[in-house]
Amino acid sequence: MARGNIGRVRATRSAGMLPVVLALTSAALLTGAAVYTVDRAGCVDPGQYTRHDNHIELVGGCVDGSELPAAPQGTSHEADAKTGVTPSNFRP
User: Fold this and answer.
1) Alpha helices for the chain (secondary structure H)
2) Sign of dihedral through CA atoms 2, 5, 11, 13?
3) Most buried one in 40, 48, 52, 60, CB count within 10 A?
4) What region, left, alpha or beta, does residue 86 occupy, with left being phi > 0 and alpha being psi -120 to 50 degrees?
5) 18 to each of 8, 24, 28, 32, 84, how far by Cα in Å?
6) pLDDT tens sequence for the chain (92 residues)
């Protein structure tokens, strides 16, 4: 009987390694996919964020402002700016 238990312990150890190997393999594949995607993005100027009086603006980058949809008019943010109310989630 002792001989049968040793075989089971070895099988359990090798079966326990399978999830680790699969996790490391999938992590390596996802990392490779991310590097490939960033490499193929073709953006020379990544842009930078600049802070103005009360807002942050993305300057530069690969997206042209003409490619973006127009902002809706009369948003609550504009009303808050007029009344001087600061949103509760505002972090300068």
Assistant:
1) 2-39, 76-83
2) negative
3) 60
4) beta
5) 16, 10, 15, 21, 59
6) 555 555 555 556 667 888 999 999 999 999 999 999 888 877 777 788 898 888 888 888 877 777 778 776 655 555 555 666 666 666 65
